[in-house]
Amino acid sequence: CCSLHERKIPSVILSGNHDSQRFWGSMQRVLSLASVHVFDKPSLDRQQVQLNIKGQKVCLSILPYPSERILASLAKNTGTLAEQRLSYADRVERILIHLAEKIPEEQVNILCSHLMVDGAKTSSERELSISLAFAVKPQSFPHAFDYVALGHIHKHQQMKLSPVQTWYSGSPYQIDFGETETEKGVILIDAEPGKTPQPTFIPLKLKQPLQNVYFHEDQLEPIQQQYQDYP
After folding, report:
1. What is the DSSP track for the chain?
2. What pLDDT, in 10s, does the model give residues 75-125?
3. What are 184-225's pLDDT values in tens digits?
4. 66-70: long-range contacts (C-beta < 8 A, 24 or more apart)?
5. What average pLDDT does the segment 154-159 reach?
6. Whole-number pLDDT of residue 83
7. What is the pLDDT of residue 54?
8. CB under 8 Å, gap of 24 or more: what pairs does 176-183 form?
């Protein structure tokens, strides 16, 4: 964070399903000193951050991981009893529509969220975290956004059924040996108001790549020598 701040590059952190919202909430003021904007949990109030990137105004709408408990808490404060009983996917869609209604014009508008989207190809995620009971329809993303940047799924991929350019960048490193053949990287977006953003996937060179090695016990010594300097 400090290195990015020294280069005058702002950054945003939003909590996921494995994060402690309390921890990130406690870090908001400290990290703001390094131009880091922290979003610890879904909110009906604090949802956006305005950035100026190379002279271009960019509005990021933020939706941290919307757990069932958080959605139930938000529903108690707004809406009728019938609205409170909507499915998980429908309640998330309502929040997305609410975010879209607040975005400014003549800017690049990007939605950043940690979500499970129906149809996403999974890899090594825990089964509970990718349950279809907590999956959002790809058609739920409002047209008002220029781009949707997603976290949660470890595999880099585009959600093609979404009406907006919607991508999972994927995890930046291999989570376990189930991802030994999965390419890791980041997405660089070239965007201007009124134009379709152009995403480019930039592969990362893994510092400690994981791989499976199969051999007979008689080959142990040469295999050991081959990998003794493995990072």
Report:
1. -HHHHHTT--EEEE--TTS-HHHHHHHHHHHHTTTEEEE-S--SSS-EEEEEETTEEEEEEEE----HHHHHHHHHHSS-HHHHTS-HHHHHHHHHHHHHTTPPSSSEEEEEEE--BTTPPPSS--GGGG-GGG-B-GGGS-TT-SEEEEES-SS-EE-TTSSSEEEE---SS--SGGGTT---EEEEEE--TTS--EEEEEE---SS--------GGGHHHHHHHTTT--
2. 665 566 556 567 888 889 989 999 999 898 889 999 999 999 999 988 776
3. 999 999 998 888 899 999 999 888 888 888 888 888 888 888
4. 66/42, 66/91, 66/92, 66/95, 66/115, 67/17, 68/134, 70/41, 70/42
5. 94
6. 61
7. 81
8. 176/124, 176/210, 177/210, 177/212, 178/123, 178/124, 179/123, 179/124, 179/154, 179/210, 180/209, 180/210, 180/211, 180/212, 182/123, 182/154, 182/155, 182/156, 183/156
Tokens 């904007």 correspond to 37
